[in-house]
Amino acid sequence: MKLPKQLLDRYGAERQSAGEAQRTANEIAFAPVVFQVSRLMKKFGILSALHEARDGLSISEIAQKLSLSEYAVKLLLESSLSIGTVLLCGEKFRLSKAGYFLLTDEMVDVDMDFIHDVCYEGLFRLEETLKSGKPEGLKVFGQWATIYEALSHLPPHVRKSWLAFDHFYSDLAFEPALKIIFSRKTDKILDVGGNTGRFAKRCVGYDENVRVTIMDLAGQIALMKDAVAGAQGAERIDGLAADLLDPATRFPRGFDAIWLSQFLDCFAEEQIVSILARAAESMSEQARLYILEPFWDRQRYETAAYSMTQISVYFAAMANGNSKIYHSDDMIKFAQRAGLKISQIHDGLGVGHTLLCCERAR
């Protein structure tokens, strides 16, 4: 496995003392406690109150300010003190740097809601998932083969957190990606797995002549039509219901670009090759296929790589039981097996996405 220097420096050699390693092991053992305490520190407004109070606040001051019992405040603060999100200065508590990021970092906010609302209960069944190859954790929401079929049926707050998570990691990458796509003459785009049509809306807003067809499950097409209704350019957004996992499902021809954004990470290796092979079969020599993914090995910062490798576990326990956030070398091999050639690679789009530009191999 190849890794860039900034990741290999972190992952290729022991960096901790014995005491630090023991601390890490205990942090792992208590990770669910750490998560829930930190979530409630945000939800109850304790972190915000400490952020606003430059000189810090005492337990009684926080309890009075937020209408909480002193027991609850003391319990959360003492736990947070050892977690490292607050500091003790005499009788008063202040926000630490870690607490500041926990409070203000949008990515942390999105990730925490996603883990709590979508994944937390289901992760208890990860062991079953790894033995069966099925998303056993999804059973907490009902009997579904994959979370994608369940999306339109999930409780509203769960669906909201899922969509916020999905959109956060993709939306910021759209603008630079559009510039790359439309650097070539592009009149027709096939958006594969387009969900609620956010990218399609960006496309028709970017170019007044382009027409976008979203190819997705029937339930998602229905959600998409509701989501784009009334939007500028909505008349140039079409839907095509299809089961992309069915090997008999063919891709329509005549498109200048095929777009797959955070889509292929939803599938196992052989499924990816099958989807890409059918896409390649539909392409002309001039057409291009674009794969936008947050490959964990191509992240600029180690914290992002950490996040991506943990998100992989969601795909196992909740999404489908057999996919993950892939290493870029793996995805490139899948594309090549499917009859595609990588013509360009663009890193650093948005939060940490890579765009693979592919053409049909001759």
Strand order of the largest sheet: 5-4-3-6-7-9-8
Low-pLDDT parts are none
Distance between the termini: 29 Å
Specify the number of helices: 16
Report the CATH superfamily of the largest domain: Vaccinia Virus protein VP39
C-alpha Rg (nearest Å): 23 Å
Looking at how many chains there are and whether they match, the oligomeric state comes to single chain
Estimate percent helicity. Answer: 40-55%
How many domains, as an integer? 2
Mean pLDDT over the full residue set: 96
% residues in beta strands: 5-15%
Return the structural class. Answer: alpha/beta
CATH class of the largest domain: Alpha Beta
> What is the CATH-assigned architecture of the largest domain?
3-Layer(aba) Sandwich
CATH fold naming of the largest domain: Rossmann fold
Indicate the overall shape. globular
Largest sheet composition: 7 strands, mixed
Structure summary, number of beta strands: 9
SSE string, helix = H, strand = E? HHHHHHEEHHHHHEHEHEEHEHHEE
Keywords:
single chain, 362 residues, alpha/beta, Arc Repressor Mutant, subunit A, Rossmann fold, two-stranded antiparallel sheet, 16 helices
Describe the protein in words.
This protein is an alpha/beta fold and 362 residues long. It has 2 domains: 5-104, Orthogonal Bundle (Arc Repressor Mutant, subunit A); 107-360, Rossmann fold (3-Layer(aba) Sandwich), CATH 3.40.50.150. Helices cover 50% and strands 15% of the residues. A 7-stranded mixed β-sheet has the order 5-4-3-6-7-9-8, with helices on both faces. It is globular, with a radius of gyration of 23 Å.
